[in-house]
Amino acid sequence: MQITRTRWFTPLVAYLLGAVMFAAQWIGGNPRSGLVSLGIMAAFGTFILFGGRSETVRGLRGDGRDERFWQMDLVATAMAGMAVIAVIIGAFLVELARGHDGNPYAALGAIGGVTYLIAIVVLRLRR
Questions:
Q1: What global pTM score does this model have?
Q2: What sign for the dihedral angle of Cα 25, 26, 30, 33?
Q3: In the predicted structure, residue 62 carries a pLDDT above the cut 80
C-alpha cells in the first residue's frame, strides 16, 4: 500500500505544514499569526481525518481514490495552476507598469514556463 493512500497521510502533512508555518512566523517575529496558521492547518487536517465516509473527503484524504477521482484531481490541479499562472502574469505586468523589474513574479513565471516545457518534452518522448 502506498503511503499516500492511507487515511493518515494528508492530515499528517497538514499538521506538519502547520508546525512549519508556525515556526517560520515565530522566527519572523509574529508568533500570534503562526498560531493562527497552525490552528487553520490543524483544523483542516482534523476535518480530513475525521470527515466521515464522504467520497470527497476520502478522495482528498487518499484512501478513497479511484481512476475517476485521479482524473478529477488532475483537472482540478490544472485549473488551480492556470489560476496561479494568470495571477503571476498579472502581478508581473503591474510591477512593470509601476516601473519595477517584475520580480519575484518574473522568476515564478519562468519556473512555471520552464517546468511546463520540460513536462511537454518528457511526456511527448514517453508516448
A1: 0.73
A2: positive
A3: no
